[in-house]
Specification:
The structure is a single chain. By secondary structure, the protein is an alpha/beta fold. The strands form two sheets. Strands 6-7-8-3-9-10 form a six-stranded mixed β-sheet, sandwiched between helices. Helix 3 crosses helix 4, helix 4 (about 115-130) packs across helix 5 (about 145-155) and helix 5 (about 145-155) runs parallel beside helix 6 (about 175-190). It is globular, with a radius of gyration of 17 Å. The chain has helices at about 45-50, 75-85, 100-110, 115-130, 145-155, 175-190, 200-205; strands spanning about 1-15, 15-30, 35-40, 60-65, 70, 85-90, 165, 195-200, 210-215, 220-225. The structure holds adenosine-5'-diphosphate (2 copies). It comes from Halobellus salinus. Keywords: ATP-binding, Nucleotide-binding, Transport.
Amino acid sequence: DSLVTLDGVTKTYNLGGTVTALDDVSVSLDEGSYTAVMGPSGSGKSTLLNLVGGLDTADAGTVRVDGVDLGRVSETRRAEKRGTAIGFVFQTFNLMPRLTAVENVSLPLVFDGWPREKRLARARDVLNDVGLGDRYDHKPAELSGGQRQRVAIARALAPDPSLLLADEPTGNVDTDTGAAIMRLLAEIHDRGNTILLVTHARRIAEHAERIVHVRDGRIERIEAVERRRPYD
Ligand code: ADP
Ligand code: ADP
């Protein structure tokens, strides 16, 4: 079954001139699949991810996630979906500097109304899952780049989302750390999560099962890949 369906999606930006960031894009993601969107800078990758993540809405066409047409629900409902059903991982981690790892990871659960003890317990569990069981009380500044990204991944996974979105997750870490992040994403996929990853780098995209090549806001082709093993 498909978890995400884009049907005839168009998105334009008007800033001085008009830029068509996405032009009549149709694609769907099966539940449990691992897809990479790959293309040069400015090809529309982030726009696509933001639409699937409900951070923005399409001008034409529909974006459905888990049965919900994101263009037809209120901003409040979209925000709710984004906080729980959809997990986001960014290139820049976006952690709260004054909060510890466990507090950062439990944040989405605050918005979801979990009681304090329950959400801290869940946050510790997820930190264990990403290999940071010994870093609960560290603040972002006390962690390495790779550890910060793992905290960000744990935060995205805390509400047990049906979809994990990652925008250049290895963009701000060195090659070895990037390989460890990609291994972690592969493990998360192996546990049954659906992942949509955006990257300009083929070496990274090859960790997915399928590469959607975009150029000038259009899908050029969709390529099935032999997953890189052992994820290097
Ligand atoms: P990519 O992620 O592949 O680099 P983007 O989706 O960020 O591409 O951008 C696609 C096109 O849309 C680019 O031409 C970009 O300049 C334009 N664009 C993206 N976001 C905005 C915005 N908020 N305002 C104006 N133009 C934008
Ligand atoms: P990883 O491979 O997980 O990214 P590193 O080998 O880079 O970890 O870091 C090893 C240790 O050094 C970490 O446990 C971390 O606490 C510490 N460390 C690394 N980078 C920084 C940093 N920029 N600030 C503070 N501590 C750091």
